[in-house]
Amino acid sequence: SVIAMSSGGPWRDWAWPEMRLKGSCASGVSSKMQPPQGVMEDDTALSGIWLHCSRGTGPSGGYTTESQSGRWGCWSGACWCPHGGHLMGFVLRVQAAQPGLLSSEVAATSARFACSNGHVLEGLGSAWGQWNGWSPQCPRAVCGIQVQQEPARGLKRGDTALNDLCLFCS
Question: What superkingdom heads the lineage (predicted)?
Fold first, then answer.
């Protein structure tokens, strides 16, 4: 099954879906974030999400998977669900369209992920925008990801990077 919220920005194309290896589930995340660029510069905010997948109860022997990421920003370290937990759902913080301010559009600015043991993971992010509601929860665990990503538009065009997200459930 798929969990999605359709709460992201309007500037997007679906990237390819990426699934975990059989017998593993997503138990951690990293985010790619561009810090604020200053007045008159183009901000993109959240640019990518990696799922960290593992077999068993910890991060050892794991690997990462991603749908697609933008070219802006740096990756955070991994945040792991504690005590052998795994990812179950998500919520995005999104900055609404800013009419007339084309260079300031950023779309998704932060993401939080619910763990099976009640913990919430949040990687790098921005305080811009509003948190949307939580997605439905996976019945067992997250096993894949697909993002809506705006391709780079070039100089002086106003790029947004990650706009929306859906997760696949096992």
Answer: Eukaryota
- What is d(CA 169, CA 17) in angstroms, rounded to the nearest whole number? 12
Alpha helices in 31-170 (DSSP H): none
Identify whether the C-beta of residue 144 lies closer than 8 Å to the C-beta of residue 52. no
Question: Encoding tokens for residue 56?
Answer: 């068993």
Residue 46: the pLDDT is: 81
Q: Provide the token pair at 91.
A: 């919520």
pTM of the model: 0.81
166 and 2 Cβ atoms separated by less than 8 Å: yes
Pair type for strands 142-149 and 162-169 = antiparallel
Q: Is 134 exposed, middle or buried (0-12, 13-18, 19+ CB in 10 A)?
A: middle
CB-CB contact of 94 with 109 (8 Å)? yes
Number of H helices, E strands in the chain: 0, 14
Task: Kindly state the average pLDDT of the residues 116-129.
Answer: 85
Backbone angles phi, psi at 77, to 5 degrees: -70, 170
* Domains in the chain, CATH or no CATH each: 24-34+43-149+161-168 (2.100.10.20)
